[in-house]
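[STRUCTURE TOKENS]
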Amino acid sequence: MADLQDELLFATGVGELDEGLVLARPDPARTQPSTGEPDEETLARARALLAAHPVADGYNGLSRALRGLTYYDLELGENAVCTDVPRLRAGHVGALLWSLHPADGADGDGPVGAVLRRLDLAGSVIRAYPESLRAAHSASEVADARHCGRVAVLLGPADAPAMGDSLEILRALYTLGLRVLTLTGVSWASEAGLTRFGEQVVREMNRVGMVADLSGACDATIRGTLGVSKAPVLCARSAARALRPHPANLSDDVLAALGAAKGLCLVPLTAEQTGPTVRDVADHLDHVRAVAGPHSVGLSGTYDCSAAHPQELPDASCYPRLVAELLDRGWPESDVALLTWGNMQRVLRSVEFAARAARQRRGPSGARIADLDGPRAPAALPG
């Protein structure tokens, strides 16, 4: 029933299911940027909207940032990081995807051991703050955490080398809580696209219920994954290449393909990928919404990842300022609700639905990279 509700939500928009929330949808071509700071009325409207539809932040590096601190207190506030409980509350953040990507040069372990250590650290941080943070492994657990006044934390994305080219390790990582895997840095998802083993990885991710992250992947891998996957994918840190030619940003044709596949582009709040001001970020959100559709755009704070942020968005408390900018541009509240919360919930539920269907059809895959992508044996000589 939840999945049927999600399909209705996708078709009608969040606001159309909540009377009193819907505004007329403006023509995207007529949407204009604001010319200055939002007034208090618009900020109050933004905060009220976020109270009903909080932010599901698609990429946060807090657990990684805490590794370098000998002492921290996230409940009282921690100046050494951009994300703590007071700022999450002020920003109306209801859910976070915690990156398990390694910091540059930070991990001396092999990729499998490194991700296990990062999973352990993330779990320890969450358990240390039970009144504020709650581990979540599904869309329903994310919703439950929000209803209990906790910030839901989903683990991932992690880098694809963490699965060691082994579907058995992939399944073990899922059992340990990993929910998002970035398909880069491996031989089976490269400039040439997905290999036969890469296709098997995507199918097994569909079967267990792990989300594929395609940020930083080449266009061939993105298109290959969209062709194979029976579940929506996301790009955890990608903006519009048409506005800013960063290698992790997406071209318009890829954005359109992502939208057609009901995937999700999470626009990062970083100066490098989107620009130095809140208006630059909003320009990217406008563009992705226009090209991929309002059902395929989300937010990726990218806080505590050693990235510079737009001057008006320095930490996780600043989401009301961004939402106010969008409201000033004429975004309907229904589209803002999709941006902040609805789209992420839809993707998570759709991935879970696809996994249940796949598990009814087949068991765990025993495919091995050496069998599918290894060198062909030489033909036997006659005689």
The radius of gyration is 21 Å. The first helix runs from residue 2 to 12. Confidence is low (pLDDT under 50) at residues 1-30, 376-383.
